[in-house]
Specification:
Layout: H1 2-53, H2 61-84, H3 89-105, H4 107-122, E1 130-133, E2 136-143, E3 147-151, E4 157-161, H5 162-166, E5 170-172, E6 179-187, H6 193-206, E7 217-223, E8 228-236, H7 241-258
Antiparallel strand pairs: 1-2, 1-5, 2-3, 3-4, 6-8, 7-8
């Protein structure tokens, strides 16, 4: 019993001694912690308002806000631990090892996440843009943090991880507001060049959806052994590309036949 009383007395003395030495630090640490929590609450509201005013993409706002708050909480905890006198080295070692392990396990996910953030910040494309990427073509219908969703011309949903998407070539056919439509017509050497160009030009001008500017271009692109290749370059709205191409080719074939020009293979 006496041994137990001595142990409690010794424990009390050590606690009292620690409190005398570190009591002021503890009080200051608790005060800084409480004040810091209030400051972080104020700063989070300020950051949220600033992002809304600067029109930061809605998909990025929660990420940046969470990142900022996490960083502020981490700095506050480290500061309080330093003031109170709690050693931070062991905690830092454990945290570093955990971070490395998680990073290795989720490297692909982090790559997609980073790609999504860069896409939303740098905006190589936006919603409703038509793009070519990763061997796929489609209209952008959704941009998420980890992936981008396209809708193909034949109504297929295409989901592309943002890590792969941002690290490869992206062709945005919508951004400039107009797109050039190119195709060729092969005619024999017996065809009168001026007559063929006039028929093709008149056909192009009669098709709805062909833009007047820039000007259309019809001309000979090359001479082959058995035929001459005529190139046709017109400008259209990106969303009208396929419809105008089909209508234009059908109109040219019909008008050439109506003008007495025999097409190769007929």
């Amino acid at each position: 019993m006496k041994l137990h009383d001595n142990y409690l007395h010794d424990l009390y003395l050590r606690a009292y001694e620690w409190l005398i030495i570190n009591g002021l630090k503890l009080v200051i640490g608790v005060a800084i912690l409480l004040i810091g929590l209030k400051v972080i609450t104020f700063l989070s509201a300020t950051i949220r308002n600033r992002m809304s005013k600067r029109e930061v993409h809605s998909s990025l706002q929660p990420f940046f806000l969470s990142l900022a708050i996490t960083a502020l909480y981490s700095l506050l905890i480290i500061w309080v631990m330093t003031i109170v006198g709690i050693p931070f080295s062991a905690f830092a070692t454990i945290l570093g090892g955990f971070t490395v392990a998680v990073g290795l396990a989720l490297s692909g996910t982090f790559q997609n996440f980073a790609g999504g953030v860069l896409i939303l910040l740098l905006k190589p494309f936006e919603l409703n843009d038509s793009i070519f990427a990763q061997g796929q073509e489609g209209k952008v219908i959704s941009i998420q943090i980890f992936y981008t969703v396209l809708l193909s011309p034949d109504n297929k949903t295409i989901i592309i991880p943002n890590g792969k998407l941002f690290n490869e070539v992206i062709v945005n056919v919508t951004r400039e507001g107009k797109r050039r439509l190119d195709f060729e017509v092969k005619l024999g050497y017996y065809v009168d060049v001026d007559q063929a160009k006039k028929i093709i030009t008149d056909a192009v001008n009669s098709v709805p959806g062909v833009l007047k500017t820039p000007a259309i271009r019809v001309g000979i692109i090359s001479f082959e052994i058995e035929h001459i290749r005529y190139t046709v370059n017109v400008w259209v709205q990106p969303n009208d590309f396929l419809n105008v191409k089909i209508a234009l080719q059908e109109k040219i074939i019909k008008d050439l036949k109506a003008g007495g020009i025999r097409l190769l293979g007929t």
